[in-house]
């Protein structure tokens, strides 16, 4: 009987050890793009799709781009009828789901750019997930049209 309990407790621990694969194994980073900046504009954004192929929820907790003085995770909120960007601690990537970073929504904010971002160039971006696993991407710079949501229609 003691042995049986021992075996049961070992078996119940197995799923925990099997789920210890790094988040980077579970997440595809699709369609990354950095917004091109007009001369003298010091801020930009990176957009992409974070696709979670696993049954485990993950989160993006940090981003770093050497081309920017500061890199932050941002979202947009509506305040007094105006869209406003605010930093967030993390960007959730639910199990078996896609999280879209896009103009007017969640994005990676590049602040105090050290140079203009011109279409056709590429920048390096590293992403850190909740388990501290990291992935480095090469992100093409492209013209990204500003978000035009229903709030921005001119009549
Ligand atoms: Cu922002």
Summarize this structure briefly.
With 155 residues, the chain is mainly beta. The chain is 14% helix and 48% strand.
Shape: globular
Strand content: over 45%
Number of strands: 10
End-to-end span in angstroms? Answer: 78 Å
- Return the CATH class: Mainly Beta
Low-confidence runs of at least 5 consecutive residues: none
Oligomeric state of the chains present here: single chain
Main sheet? Answer: 10 strands, mixed
Percentage of residues assigned to helices: 10-25%
In the CATH classification, which architecture applies? Sandwich
Total individual domains: 1
Task: Report on this structure.
- A hairpin with a 4-residue loop joins strand 9 and strand 10 (about 135-140).
- This protein has helices at about 1-20, 25; strands at about 25-35, 45-50, 60-65, 70-80, 80-85, 90-95, 100, 105-115, 120-130, 135-140.
- The protein is about 15% helix and about 50% strand.
- The chain has one domain (about 20-145): Immunoglobulin-like (Sandwich).
- With about 160 residues, the chain is mainly beta.
- Strands 1, 2, 3, 4, 5, 6, 7, 8, 9 and 10 form a 10-stranded mixed sheet that branches.
- It is globular and about 45 Å long.
- It binds copper (II) ion.
- Copper (II) ion (CU) binds near residues 74 and 109.
């Amino acid at each position: 009987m003691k042995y049986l309990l021992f075996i049961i407790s070992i078996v119940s621990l197995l799923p925990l050890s099997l789920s210890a694969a790094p988040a980077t194994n579970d997440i595809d980073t699709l369609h990354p793009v950095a917004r091109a900046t007009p001369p003298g504009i010091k801020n930009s954004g990176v957009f992409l799709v974070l696709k979670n192929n696993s049954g485990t929820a993950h989160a993006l907790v940090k981003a770093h781009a050497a081309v920017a003085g500061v890199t932050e995770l941002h979202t947009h909120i509506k305040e007094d009828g105006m869209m406003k960007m605010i930093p967030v601690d993390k960007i959730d990537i639910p199990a078996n789901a896609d999280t879209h970073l896009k103009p007017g929504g969640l994005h990676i904010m590049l602040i105090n750019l050290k140079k203009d971002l011109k279409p056709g160039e590429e920048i390096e971006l590293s992403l850190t997930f909740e388990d501290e696993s990291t992935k480095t991407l090469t992100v093409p710079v492209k013209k990204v049209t500003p978000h035009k949501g229903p709030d921005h229609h001119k009549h």
